[in-house]
Amino acid sequence: IFLKLINSNGNMTMQEQYVKNPHLDTMEEDILYHFNLSTKTHNLPAMFGDTKFVCVGGSPNRMRSFAQFIHQELELPGSVDNIRDICEETDRYSMYKVGPVLSISHGMGVPSISIMLHELIKLLYHARCRDVILFRIGTSGGIGLAPGTVVITDKAVDSFFRPQFEQVILGKVIIRSTELDEEVARELLQRSTELPNFPTVIGNTMCTHDFYEGQGRLDGALCSFSTEEKLDYLRKAHEAGVRNIEMESTVFAAMSRVCNLKAAVICVTLLNRFEGDQISTPHDVLVEYQQRPQCLVAHFIKKRLGLI
Ligand code: R2B
Ligand code: URA
Fold this sequence. Notes:
Layout: E1 2-6, E2 12-16, E3 31-32, E4 37-38, H1 44-48, E5 53-57, H2 60-73, E6 95-98, E7 101-105, H3 110-126, E8 133-142, E9 150-157, E10 164-169, E11 172-177, H4 182-193, E12 200-207, H5 227-239, E13 242-246, H6 249-258, E14 262-272, H7 283-304
This protein binds 1,4-anhydro-D-erythro-pent-1-enitol and uracil.
């Protein structure tokens, strides 16, 4: 689907829309049910049209903190305490808008983030947003890295280390590529070198559909494999370039790619999975770790906006 635009020289340019669904144009109203927003009841272009950066992460509280943090970093007027949850009428997701930055929670796992992404991508389309960059900032288990290391995802891979996402549609398996924007990843790595004490690597990120057995943990309610088998799997993952494990990156990468959205995944590692499975790091240390992806993305945004 192409949209004709007049650029600043008065010439017609072609820009691809973010949505890939011909049915949308035939609908009189589009209800973004899990956001409690609709094209009839809300002026989406007025509310969201100037959005340039969208940051998503699992937890509603973390995404509120991120909104408050970015408000301070961009030195925007008004109090951080007045930042309102746009989706407060629903308890599915939280959404905060701070200047050109949108901060949204997505819950845990592929189904939760994919519902959010469908509605987010339609929101960007209805609001006529352009040149948006999408970031997932999250937590993960590291493979062979010191806890607290930030991993910028090169390729998001599935549990077989394949850079693809499988979706069942009408009873058929559809495979989509999970490559992310290389330029944004490189630029993020460059920005990380400008921050003090900021261990950062680029590597593949494995996305699983379970936190326990699916990630080779020995400490779930069920476990059918030995310590040796676990370590063997993690070693194979490491050989395939996997540096961290989380639960959303493949569908995030696949949907962004199909919809022409530049996207990046930035996750901090909470533990080294070669050394254990339980997350036993003290709470205050975990809180500091979780701020690292936020700091990196804030630094990136400030640089892009010419503020530093
Ligand atoms: C990282 O952390 C969560 C599980 O604890 C999950 O959402 C993920 O990707
Ligand atoms: N999130 C995950 O998905 N796995 C971990 O080990 C830590 C956080």
